What does this fold into?
Amino acid sequence: MTTASISLGASVSSQSRFMQLALAALLGIFVVGVVGFSHIDAVHNAAHDYRHSMAFPCH
Amino acid sequence: MNLFRNVVFVAAIAGLVAGVVLACMQAYATVPLILKAEVYEKAGGGHQHEHAAAPANAAGGNAMSSAAPAANSMSAATPASAEAAAPAEDEGWAPADGLERFAFSVLANIVTGIGFALVLVAVSEFAGGIGNWRQGVFWGLAGFAVFTLAPGLGLPPELPAMPAADLMQRQVWWWATVLATSAGLSLIAFRKSLPLAILGVLLIVAPHIVGAPQPDSFETPIPEGLHHQFVVAVTVTNLVFWLVLGAIVGVVRGRVTGTATSLRDSFA
It folds into this structure.
C-alpha cells in the first residue's frame, strides 16, 4: 500500500483484501435480496411500498 | 478484518443517512401514488398479487388498502391485531395502514440503504476508493445507472394492479441486467482498451436485446397519467438517493482515512 493510494484498510495482503471486500459486497447483496426480493409474504408485505418505490419486481 | 469493519462502518453511516432521505422522498413522491393505485386496484376487483389465493378473496378487504380508516394506524403493533384489522387478508401478515406501514417502509429503506452502501463501498475500494464527495457523486451516478436506470428500461416501475410477467423471471432478468450493466460500466471505466470498452457496451445493451419478461396483456385499471407520474417519481427519488449515498460515502471515508496513519489500521 503506497502512500499515494489511501485505503480503508492499509497493510493487508491483496488476497485478504479481496476476500474482505468481496464479503462486504456479498453481504450488501444479501441484505438487498432479502428485503427487496424475498418471496416470503410477510417480508413482501412489510416492504411493499418500498419495493414498488424502488421499481423492484413485485407481486 | 480491519478493512471489512471499516467498509461496514462507512456503509452503515452512508446507508442510514441516504435511506432516511429516500424514505422521506418516497413519503411525498411515490407512496401517495401507490395508495391512489390501490384505490383502482380495489375498485377493479382484481388483485394482481401473483400469490393471491382465490379470486373470491380478491375484492375483499385488504390490509394494504389506502381506503382503510386511519384508525387502524395507531392500534396495531402486533401481527395478531393487524390480522384482526383485516380479517379477509389471506396473504400473511402485513403492517397496518398508517404509521406501522410507514415505519416498515422506513426500516426497509435504511436496511437496504446500508446494503447498497456495502456494495458501493466494497466495489469502489477495488478501484481505489471514493476519495471525496465529488467522486462519490459520480459513483452514485453509476449506482443509479446500474440499479435503477438499466433494469427500469425493461421493467419500468409498476404500480399495484398493473399486469406483469412471472415474478421469478422478472427478478432473474433484473439481477442479470444489474450484473451485465455493472460489468459493462467497469470495463469501460477501468480498462484502457478499446476492444474491452466495446465489449462493455455490448454487455450493457445485451439484456435489452434479450428483453425483459413482459405480461400477456397490458390491460390495467391504472390511468396512464398516474403510471407516468410514478415512473418519474421513482426514477428521480432513486437518482437523489444514489447521489446522496455516493457523496456521503466520500465524506465519511475521507474522515476515516484522513485521520492519523496509525488510526488507519486500528480504526473501528
